[in-house]
Design a protein that fits this description.
By secondary structure, the protein is an all-alpha fold. About 75% of the residues lie in helices and about 0% in strands. It contains 16 helices and no strands.
Length: about 350
């Protein structure tokens, strides 16, 4: 999808949500009400820590392959990628920009460079699924019992879907770990298959690259779990700081179920995350809570994202000409049929 259409769709989704929210008599007082600013502002360094650790996780994977890329270069590429995901720089996504910057420093090792970005993304998403599945198993029974029958059914179905996908993902990664599977010629034949051929080719190449480094991949999954817990903690801080009374807040256990699926929804245009978290907060919150409290939390988080993206904007301003060339190269070298999968823009998993 073209960047302009993404921005247009995102604007329409946000506008629709805000329009619907204005019909809620509790929405205005919630926005204008008294805020606990120290608690709200504490969410910013928590999110910044999560983004920084995510970028350094990628550096761990890059370093393991012996690629020439310093921590300073990794941070620059990572924050520029974060900016590209949030505010489209041309047609290129942040992962493609990171891959091109890494290829620039290692022109003869393109396969390994792309593999490091793809494996970093896959492991982050896998850890997110594990966290969501684990949290769903720990959801307090008494919290579910307080919900209306329809709302309880929605939460239970969501938990079942997350658990099922996590199991399938674990089985899939386990199968890909078998040498006879990853080195099968069948994958080479599927490389030219429509729609999925390019993605399968890159995924199998990445697994072939890292198959012998299982301890490194486990460490990356562990780091990813820490990152996702930081994001959940940030949403908890926002929930505590926006002015809700104790009787209007969902249980902390519910927030652990709400946040991971919402983060997965962040893979879609801006606005889908807001829709998802608004609905999930509505289901999991007490009856007396404002119906659109999730939208307020989502908007607060978007402001935090924009604040963090100013770091990437600083790198952009410091080398506008060079970054513009890199963006153009990313669009040229990774065309539509071969681009890396669309990243989770909400969380940078």
């Amino acid at each position: 999808m073209q960047a302009g259409w993404k921005v247009l769709l995102s604007g329409l989704l946000i506008g629709y949500l805000v329009l619907r929210a204005t019909s809620d008599p509790q929405f205005g007082p919630l926005l204008a009400g008294r805020k606990d600013w120290p608690v709200l502002l504490a969410a910013l360094p928590v999110c910044l820590a999560a983004v920084t650790i995510t970028i350094l996780r990628w550096h761990l994977l890059v370093h393991a392959l012996g690629l020439d890329f310093s921590v300073r270069q990794t941070l620059r590429a990572g924050f520029l990628g974060y900016l590209a995901n949030l505010l489209p720089l041309g047609l290129v996504a942040g992962d493609s920009l990171k891959a091109v910057m890494l290829i620039h420093a290692n022109p003869r090792r393109k396969t390994e460079a792309v593999a490091s970005v793809l494996v970093d993304r896959v492991l982050g998403l896998y850890a997110l699924l594990l966290l969501a599945a684990g949290a769903s198993l720990l959801l307090p029974v008494e919290q579910l019992a307080r919900l209306a029958a329809d709302d309880r059914q929605v939460i239970q179905r969501l938990c079942s879907v997350v658990q099922g996908v996590a199991v399938l993902a674990s089985l899939g990664l386990g199968v890909m770990w078998i040498p006879a599977v990853t080195h099968s010629r069948l994958w080479d034949r599927l490389e030219h298959a429509p729609l999925i051929g390019g993605v399968l080719h890159r995924l199998v190449a990445a697994m072939r690259t890292y198959r012998r480094r299982w301890e490194l991949l486990l460490a990356a999954v562990g780091v990813s779990l820490v990152v996702h817990l930081l994001y959940v903690a940030a949403v908890v801080l926002i929930t505590l700081g926006i002015g809700l009374g104790p009787s209007q807040r969902p249980a902390v256990g519910s927030i652990f179920v709400i946040v991971p699926p919402s983060m997965i929804a962040g893979a879609l245009p801006i606005g889908v995350y807001e829709v998802t978290i608004t609905l999930l907060f509505r289901v999991a919150s007490p009856p007396q809570a404002p119906p659109n409290v999730g939208l307020v939390i989502a908007l607060a988080y978007r402001l935090i994202q924009i604040s963090i993206a100013t770091i990437g904007a600083g790198y952009w301003l410091a080398g506008r000409r060079e970054v513009r060339v890199l963006v153009e190269e990313a669009e040229a070298e990774l065309p539509a049929g071969e681009t890396l999968p669309t990243p989770l823009t909400h969380s940078e998993v």
